[in-house]
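Purpose: get a first structural picture of the assembly so the mutagenesis plan has something to point at.
Setup: two entries, given in the order below. No constraints added.
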Amino acid sequence: MSQIFATKFEQVCDILDKYECNPNHLIAILQEIQHAYSYLPEDILTYVATALRITPGAVYGVATFYAHFTLEPKGKYVIRVCDGTACHVKKSETIINMLKSELGLPENKNTTDDLLFTLEIVACLGACGIAPLMMVNDEVYGSMTKEKLTEILEKIRKEEAAND
Amino acid sequence: MAENIIVDNLAIEAEDDENLLELIRRAGIDLPTFCYHSEISVYGACRMCMVEVEGRGIVPACSTRPEPGMVIKTHTSQIRDLRKMIIELMLANHDPKCTTCPESGTCRLQSIATQLGVRDVRFNQVSSHLPIDNTSEAIVRDPSKCILCGDCVRVCGEIQSVGALDFTGRGADAQVVTYFNKGMGDVECVNCGQCVKVCPVGALTAKYHISQVWDAVYDESKTVVVQIAPAVRVALGDYFGEKPGALTTGKIITSLRRMGFDRIYDTCFAADFTVVEEGREFLSRYSKGENLPLFTSCCPAWVKFAEQYYPDLLDNLSTCRSPMMMFGSLCKDQLSQELGVAREDIVMVSIMPCTAKKFEASRPELSKDGNPDVDFVLTTKELAIMMQENGIEYDKMELGSFDMPYGFYTGAAVIFGASGGVSEAVLRFAAEELNKGSSQEFHEVRSSSGVKVATIQIGEVELKLAVVSGLANARALIDRIRNGEEHFDLVEVMACPGGCVNGGGQPVADDYEAIAARAKGLYDSDKMLQFHNSSQNPYLKQIYHEKIDEEKAHELLHTHFENRKRIHHDDFVLGELPDEVELSLSICFGTSCYLRGAQELYNRITEYIRENGLEKNTEFKANFCGELCKKGPTLIINGKVIEHCTYEIAIEEIQAQMAKRK
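Result (structure tokens, whole complex):
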């Protein structure tokens, strides 16, 4: 759709203006960029370095330091599976393995080629009482089982098919 | 201070030492360290210099301030064990192929491990082999050797203000990389080699040309000509146990003859040409008041820096080639005629204190019909390695002399290797031109490091000069010049602190005194020569009178500069690609254009396109530097480049293009 025309740099320009191109706000700027673009694109980061008058290497250093930031485009649905102690004991691994095979994700890859799903394994989501636990974007799913997982994935895929 | 500090049972009077490490070293005790360098910030990463301070426990000496009354132990049993363990941990994570490493023999990890008696590594080898970065003409990066001391990161950022290298990731995943892990040849690295100099291991090394040079030497059909830069002769001795600054010219020449080089010449010969050409250029600009200050252009790291960061000042750079490149073009041109040898059969080898010279030699404009004016560049260190490979016993070498005529030079040329030397040489020339016959020295511009400003009176004329070394110093000075806060007639810039004597291809000096000793070696050499002004060089006069006319001189001795991208990547489409493109826009978002308002221009054009319903068939791209920085902001509309673009000009052109379509 052509409405998307030229949106790519407009958002970063607005974010930079908001922070008055102050390099002290680099982390906040990167957070907003990630929110706007769903990841930190290389060209945008080069532009941020130019606008903040710091080296591109310094921006890249910060962007790779925090696990929160990602340099790869994320899927539309970010699935976070908790593998903290409680979830691990409750066999979160079964859920993780099933997700990997269901989504067809090989090792070292956590986003599907169609950019629909991203799988993230996280340390603790702070809801150990309903372990094993996973989140799809902002939605929380507790006491996960294989059956429940199949249901959730099917629902998402159906919705996507209807949208197309 | 009244109270002493006790170091290993001995009382040491506290002076104004910056930190405990300096104080302990002053006391004659050497502490091992990877990450401490007095000229860059204290980082405290390697933990090798830790000592025990009574009442405080174990602290890193480099980042602890001396306080009166401190009682320090430097080598307790516990500290020994800890130091050994750190080395073991480093070795467990380090590519173990020591024997084939270019740094073998001068590697600090190797020497400290030996010194501490590490005979066994108790941890499993866990290093994963990361690919070697060979993209740069000057520097090779081997991340599997990196010990994360951060020396390169700090020297590149703090001393050079380039910041091409930085940390990425953290914890066990931490690495030192370039932007998005691109090649060193694809980012803003200026090839100065200061990172190579401070790297304690083989993670950053010069790109060796040794095997190519041997091939040429053994090839009977080639005439192999070698030129030696001034700074090499006062530093090579470091490898062979000479005192810092010892003049080794004679021994180098004999060694090169033994190794099989056909002609042995001196870069200083061409430096005399540089002085005359640059001196004339300066006097001409000065009399016309044009493009001042004149910036020197001998230093290829500075030239690349200027091309990247100061495109608007490129007209102020002297168009003179560096002495090395003047030598290459002049010598290939003259020798091929004298010897009746085809240019392609002359191999020009330069021995330089510098890694950036390797990059300079590869610049396409410094060649003729695809044949480079300088074929290979060896650093001082590579020369030392080649001498050893050839079984040369340095101590037994007799002294030799350069071949003529391209081995003859004046004292003005030999001081090029020290910061301030080029300025002084040009001043000597200018003084003689303006005052007819007065010859003098200009100690005011001799500089050991940093920035030196001087006002020089020559007859009626008052010249304001700045001599600066270290690119961060240069950046600060140029920003002041740009803002109109300062005015100079001549500015000499050398990328390496102290000039070429402290170049990235030189042996690592222990301290600044050693660098100063090298500079002194060059000034002493100047004293011992008969001529101190480049225009007095008789062979130079002969060439100007008999061999080359003005046009030829310009072709052989001058060059040009170009705007240069800092980071290489493709253009980016700013929105989704329309099915049918009628209007194709590409805006430059590089630094210069950004500063000239590219962002506002982009916003307004976008608005215009929206308001006029053109977005369906418009493609808008961003490029990071179209290398037209002086003329920014630049916008390309359907292939037409518009320089100094304003909103009004852009809209006019867009309307014209759309009208054409209809």
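The mean pLDDT of chain A is 88.
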